[in-house]
């Protein structure tokens, strides 16, 4: 059975009241947005050609080894101690899926062209793109979760190179394994990607897991991405002693 795939994604552009879009623009309360800003937001979304073509690519493999610092399949290793701590407590079979999503080069062109008209308009378009590509990633994870191999499994939150303790340098290994070039994504020398509105990430799947993120195992303070409190009594439980 093929454990890889590619999919066109149906991601509608957000409207001016979209809470995620407003957060990207720095507004938690729609009622506090200035009238002229809301007019710009609505006009930009309505008038600009949103030539986004969301597409995703994914590949899955069995996890063959978990150490204190790594999660490994036959073809790829994740050097991330905090995620390894979580993986070490998963029960039953464990699998890893790696994926990439992008809005395509046409959306980048729209953003660049808008800079010639209005930097404010460009800022709004950039935020729209961020919301759309995040939702494209969520939609692709939902597609992956329906694969027959994963029936009876639960998944973690997605995690990307450059976040938590997974180095951005891992992008080169991820690209070698997944080959996002197939959907038009190019890896830049610093680890970034073109088109700009692209995401690469991984999800771990298991029959049982204590939580869906490594936050309870991570003592780091002041993290903007924290999704759960650090729990000292479980932080080192079940960690393999080998390196």
Major sheet: arrangement of strands: 1-2-6-10-7
Question: Separation of termini?
Answer: 33 Å
**Shape assignment:** globular
How confident overall, as mean pLDDT?
Answer: 88
Task: Please tell me about this protein's structure.
With 243 residues, this protein is α+β, with helices and mostly antiparallel strands. Helix content is 31%, strand content 21%. It contains seven helices and ten strands. It has helices at 19-24, 35-47, 81-87, 105-115, 119-145, 171-178, 232-235; strands spanning 4-8, 55-62, 65-66, 70-72, 77-79, 91-102, 154-155, 186-187, 193-194, 198-208. Helix 2 (35-47) crosses helix 5 and helix 4 (105-115) packs antiparallel against helix 5. The longest helix has 27 residues, at 119-145. The radius of gyration is 19 Å and the shape is globular. The mean pLDDT is 88.
Kindly summarize this structure in a few lines.
The protein has 243 residues and is α+β, with helices and mostly antiparallel strands.
Distinctive features:
243 residues; alpha+beta; five-stranded antiparallel beta sheet; three-stranded antiparallel beta sheet; 7 helices; 31% helix; 21% strand
